[in-house]
Inverse folding.
């Protein structure tokens, strides 16, 4: 069995003359937690869309469990998009949203088996009580739990999340990391998460991918987030607060 969940070799993505990503080269071991960081417009979401098979590489190669993204079994992959992209006015309840993770479409009605699997996923993230609540009436933290339930309802082996902590408070954020780690421990899944949260990067990630339209670094948080790497990614001293936080956090370990 391939020991890597994700393998990327000299990946380039161009849109016309615009280079969105270049020179990505990394191997992500199974059952690891990878934080993807970088400034706005760095290509982080583009990278996840390449892994999802939504954007083809211009050159280079991407493998998910040893296969190209479009050949891999979709049941092996879960995805949590940015919440701001969701239409919360749609007249649906939480359990129906979770079900779409199984069917890829909105249900006319839920079978007994589908309801059972959706309820199980909601229970895994502590959201059983939200099953019949309209999604338009969910708080940010509640919607986060429901979206996480949707992403794990098929029990995927690779879970990708695009800024999942946006719009939730600190308590909800810690709950999310606890749920992710519990799911990893139970399933052996690999997690790739786009984040701007330095606490998550330094305290939860096994590896960090630092991007700014090209790969700046990939490795442990201590290796990937060295000061010279951060300066290359952000291009100025404006993230000195992050540098101080990283140095203080590393000093505690």
């Amino acid at each position: 069995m391939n020991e890597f969940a994700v393998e990327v070799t000299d990946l380039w993505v161009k849109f016309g003359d615009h280079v969105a990503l270049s020179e990505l080269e990394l191997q992500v071991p199974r059952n690891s937690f990878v934080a993807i960081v970088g400034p706005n417009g760095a290509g982080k979401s583009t990278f996840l869309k390449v892994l999802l098979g939504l954007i083809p590489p211009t050159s280079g190669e991407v493998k998910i469990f040893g296969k190209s993204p479009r050949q891999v079994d979709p049941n092996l992959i879960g995805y949590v998009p940015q919440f701001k992209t969701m239409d919360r006015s749609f007249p649906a309840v939480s359990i129906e949203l979770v079900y779409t993770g199984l069917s890829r479409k909105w249900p006319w009605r839920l079978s007994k088996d589908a309801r059972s699997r959706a309820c199980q996923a909601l229970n895994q993230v502590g959201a059983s009580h939200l099953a019949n609540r309209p999604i338009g009436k969910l708080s940010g933290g509640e919607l986060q739990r429901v979206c996480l339930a949707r992403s794990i309802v098929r029990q995927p082996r690779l879970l990708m999340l695009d800024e999942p902590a946006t719009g939730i408070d600190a308590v909800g954020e810690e709950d999310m990391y606890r749920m992710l780690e519990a799911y990893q421990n139970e399933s052996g899944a690999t997690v790739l998460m786009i984040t701007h949260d330095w606490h998550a990067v330094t305290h939860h990630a096994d590896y960090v991918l630092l991007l700014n339209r090209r790969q700046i670094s990939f490795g442990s948080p201590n290796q990937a987030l060295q000061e010279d790497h951060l300066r290359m990614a952000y291009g100025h001293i404006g993230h000195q607060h992050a540098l101080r936080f990283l140095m203080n956090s590393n000093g505690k370990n």
